[in-house]
Amino acid sequence: MTVRIITRLDIKGPNLVKGIHLEGLRVLGKPEKFARYYYEEGADELLYMDVVASLYGRNNLLDIVTRTSKEIFIPLTVGGGLRTLDDIKTVLRAGADKVSINTAAVHRPEFIREAANRFGSSTIVVSIEAIRRSDGRYEAYTDNGREKTGLDAFEWAIHTAELGAGELLVTSIDREGTGKGYDLELTRKIAKSVPIPVIACGGAGRSADISQVVWEGKADAICVASMLHYTAVKHLRSLDGFEFEGEGNIEHLKANKGFSKVEESSIAAIKKELAAKGILCRYPLEEKVA
Fold first, then answer.
1. Which option is the CATH number for 4-100+179-289: 1.10.238.10, 3.40.50.720, 3.40.1190.10, 3.20.20.70?
2. Has 129 been annotated as catalytic?
3. Residue 10: active-site member
4. For 103-148, what is each residue's pLDDT tens digit?
5. What is the DSSP string of 86-148?
6. pLDDT surpassing 80 at residue 238
7. CA distances from 224 to 56, 86, 275, 279 (A)
8. Candidates 10, 50, 139, 273; catalytic one
């Protein structure tokens, strides 16, 4: 098995943003520029997530997806606000390779089966956003971590696989953006319960966290954001034409500050670290990991 490194890009309006616990979003810049940078750096896949889509009942990424798909040639997953088969078809036609669904699937689980039958299981990623409760149980949330469902995250994961999901994107809301490491218990229990790939998301703060969630969390793929974004910001700011003025809350960019408790890294460095620990991963650009 080859572990995939997936770069997550949370989108609000025209901007790439990043927060903590999926809240307190900071504007970082134009998502297409980051997508191309990560593609050139050797990302295996990209994930675009419209973080306010469920609030407005629709996905607003079509233009961004269309522009990005013309520039990069690795799998692109798009999520947020996809409620119907027509929504999925529209996003795929715009250039996405896979879609991520959550809220619509919780509201009507049969939607997973219908989507898998129509577009193929390999196209359908079910996103499970979970919070650990005081009694130790994990509850699944919707609407980008804002709404409780009452569903046990592990039971829901098994059900989604039975309905035809091709992959699961498992996000710990408790850990997301904190740099405290992935929730190993959450990822491991789901990975051991389903016969489909599990993507670990939320909490990466250093390279050791990534190797740990592979070995101990049994993840098949890794989603990374904060560790990569600030390195990308510094690189893109050094280029002509990188604009972030007028993009919203950019004081942290002007102050040249990164993300608290998160080490700056790159895709090449992460892959090199994984390889050193015996974890297979792709090296699309060999010279970058020499």
1. 3.20.20.70
2. yes
3. yes
4. 999 999 999 999 999 999 999 999 999 999 999 999 999 987 778 9
5. HHHHHHHHHT-SEEEE-HHHHH-THHHHHHHHHH-GGGEEEEEEEEE-TTS-EEEEETTTTEE
6. no
7. 26, 29, 17, 17
8. 10
